[in-house]
Amino acid sequence: MQIAFAIIAALTVVSAIAAMSLRSLVHCALCLAVAFAGLASLYLQLGAPFAGWAQVLVYIGAVAILIVFAILLTRSSEPAPPPLIARPWIVGVAIAVLVFGVLTNAIMNSSIANREPPVKPEPTVRQIGTQLMTRYVLPLEVIGLLLTAATIGAVIIALHEPGGKKSAPQPATTGPHNEDGKLESAKT
């Protein structure tokens, strides 16, 4: 069990780092989906089946796919990405490591770390589903509408040409035209 946890945790961390550092947006999105899958498997391994399957359905099945579609639909001429290792990147990593160390020290020296854990509640998937479909139905519908609006927005943006002009078909006209494309009047 410990070996499986270590492998899943390493895969999740590596894919999360790859999602932040790769240059291709599509590769970043796919690495993000792998990180979501690693989190879902960790939830399942820790005995939280609802959280694990919700992670699979919501984050992998909806959010990650929506991100991939949005990237593919809104692709335009992107400038070349900056170099991977730059001074701001190194400073950011140093600050992140410093904050991680301070937070770890604060947690390990607090009284919360030495407390007995509370009794674990045992909600079933049926109870959670009942709550989602009764008490929390409005937030669930709002999230569905938000994801639908994001998808429609990505499609609308994808319909525009890179120059900002809308790509609409030109109306067909019949008859003789001059050099400007205007219809010439009939000569008598």
Structure in a nutshell:
With 188 residues, the protein is an all-alpha fold. The chain has helices spanning 2-21, 25-45, 49-73, 87-108, 125-134, 137-159. The protein starts with a helix and ends in a 29-residue tail after the last helix.
Count of alpha/pi helices: 6
Globally, the shape reads globular
Gap between N and C termini, in Å?
A: 94 Å
- How large is the share of residues in beta strands? under 5%
Mean pLDDT, all residues: 79
CATH class of the domain at 2-77 and 123-159: Mainly Alpha
**SS-based class:** mainly alpha
Question: What can you tell me about this protein's structure?
Answer:
It is a single chain. The chain has a domain at 2-77 and 123-159: Four Helix Bundle (Hemerythrin (Met), subunit A). It contains six helices and no strands. The chain is globular. Helices cover 64% and strands 0% of the residues.
